[in-house]
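Thread: "does anyone have the structure for this chain?"

Original post by V.I.:
We have the sequence but no experimental structure in hand. Need at least a predicted one for the grant figures.
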Amino acid sequence: MSVELDFKRESPKRQGNIWEQDQLRAKKEAWSIGYNFHASDSPFILSEVQVDLSKHAFFEGKNVPLSEAKINIATHGFLYGTAVFSGMRAYWNEEAKRLFVFRPYDHFHRLLNSARMMAMNIPYDEAGLIQLTLDLLRTDNWQEDIYLRPTIYKADMGIGVRLHDLKDEFSMFVMAFEKYVKNDANAHLTFSSWRRIDDNVIPARGKVAGAYANSALIKTDANRAGFDEAIVLDSNGHVSEGSAMNIFMMRDGVLVTPPSTDNILEGITRRSVMELARNELGLEVVERSIDRTEVFIAEELFMTGTAAQIVAATRVDYRPIGSGVMGPVTTKLRALFDDVVRAKLPKYKDWNLEV
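Reply from O.Q.:
Generated one for you, tokens below.
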């Protein structure tokens, strides 16, 4: 839920410092009622605080209240973005009254691969990280859809850009989570002027914290221009991904997605959707480079990610995709995926870990 405060200002370019005064007043009101403050060029939007500081996090080798899981501002991972992370979700099955973590082994395997790229080493393998996750979730007895953020970071303090001879730490916190893209059934996209980072600049297939400055630039520019998300091209001008999501399109009855060599993140949701499309819908799935103009003539277009799940895109730069509404393949995949992540399809029970 969000709260919108419209101060009926004359325009974003009001004279003097009235705009700044409005911002300060809204921020004070936000603090008083326990909301997060976000300023933009549209009416003020205050969204509910999602992180519950009374819940627990894994930090420096033990579970502690999230309010106590703090790092110093001189920490290397904070100063230089030398951290890797994964986004994971767990889903509440109301009928079974159980919580299920979706594909935790795959997420932790990718996290550890990201750590290797950044010369990091922690004393846990995938099995050990899964056990830490179960212990953490059971501590707070979560009974709703949640998001988990495990992170490995360079924990030494001081100035100096390097990866070697530094201490590595693992942490993880949990928060309640619903939609990542509010308009996920009818999203309007734009092509970003920013390019996707190249694998020879920062590992594109790793989730490196510093690299997400690229994603933030992409997302903010798209949102401020009135779009729900953006499509990002790689250095060769091929479609790579969204600000933080993989991309699929239907062309001539074939489901097409960019290959991992086009600087995409090797998404867990992406891999799951490919398997569901082949096995459950009988679709041909092809990984190949996608040209910009192909997007405009696709029959369907959607984006995938752990946080976003499956987002249907119905317009790109004011051009309708297909008939301009969510297509049948996207509709079926969204329904299938929701059943799978809530452990309602026994065929895919190995993807779900019961808490």
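V.I.: this helps a lot. Residues 2-48 form one domain.
O.Q.: and Residues 1-49 have pLDDT under 50 and may be disordered.
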